[in-house]
Amino acid sequence: MKVFSYDSAGSKSLIDYDNFTFSGGEEHVRFNTANFSDSKKIEIFERLTNSSNMVRLMIAVDALKRLTNESTPIELVIPYFPYARQDRVCVEGEALGAAVMAKFINNLNFSKVTIWDAHSDVSPALINKVTNIEQISLLARCEELSQRLSQGELTLISPDAGASKKTIKISEKFNGVPEVIQAQKVRNLKTGEIIKTEIIGDVKGKSVLIADDICDGGRTFIELAKVLKNNGAVEVSLFITHGIFSKGLDVFEGLIDKIYTTDSFKPANEFKHSNNINLEIIEM
């Protein structure tokens, strides 16, 4: 967790603080009063990728509100919004995870909440005072991709219907120069297993870029890359906003030539690289 203070001139400074975890699992955070003597706004940057980080955030916000007598607005930046994929109740007896997480955030009463590339429209609709940084704004931070897309060197692949709107926005950002090809996957509704993947268009001899928001284990992109290569694509790249890569990068060997992702889920130095996969981290 990073905490920043903005003074009356708008200057931003990183604030040091003490924190540790007690042997019983309790999180402890302590700030220095002097660091906020001229603070007009506080910003917290946190990756809420585990329960400990969530508790630490609650403790930090309470400490800051007590320290400033709740007179200083506090903003939150959480690039990866946890539980965003649980945006509907598929089976009776399940929770609506996105709503639970949004309620947790809303109860902390931030003056502004910023997330990156929401999985669907559900999460932004549930979070109070939210700003959603769209995928195209994040992709534009990568000079190499921006140049190749603007010159028409890459054909955009939408991996499924859910990603099609975002993929079209990327093409529109570059004045419609990049061609867009739609892919679709068929799943077993009981197991979630991908039965088959199809592409609607010709990729023979083309360099393609798959764009989506989250890569967890990567099964969707592995199956899609197989079809793309079998249909003659000469180069397959992947742009993912939130790179989790729970199965590592070696699972993409021989299928995906280069992967681009941001540091939303973890800092750049925590990514495990592979000798066989070209990974580029777009640090924000």
TrEMBL record:
Origin organism lineage: Bacteria, Pseudomonadati, Pseudomonadota, Gammaproteobacteria, Alteromonadales
Keyword Transferase: yes
NCBIfam families attached to this UniProt entry: ribP_PPkin
PANTHER family: RIBOSE-PHOSPHATE DIPHOSPHOKINASE FAMILY MEMBER, RIBOSE-PHOSPHATE PYROPHOSPHOKINASE 1, CHLOROPLASTIC
Name of the protein in its database record: Ribose-phosphate diphosphokinase
Superkingdom to which the source organism belongs: Bacteria
CDD domains per the UniProt record, alphabetical: PRTases_typeI (cd06223)
Gene Ontology molecular function, alphabetical: ribose phosphate diphosphokinase activity
Entry-linked InterPro entries: Pribosyltran_N (IPR029099), PRTase-like (IPR029057), PRTase_dom (IPR000836), Rib-P_diPkinase (IPR005946)
The enzyme's E.C. designation: 2.7.6.1
Alphabetical list of Pfam families matching this protein: Pribosyl_synth (PF14572), Pribosyltran_N (PF13793)
Keyword Ribonucleoprotein: no
Sequence ranges assigned to domain Ribose-phosphate pyrophosphokinase N-terminal in this UniProt record: 18-106
Keywords, comma-separated and alphabetical: Nucleotide biosynthesis, Transferase
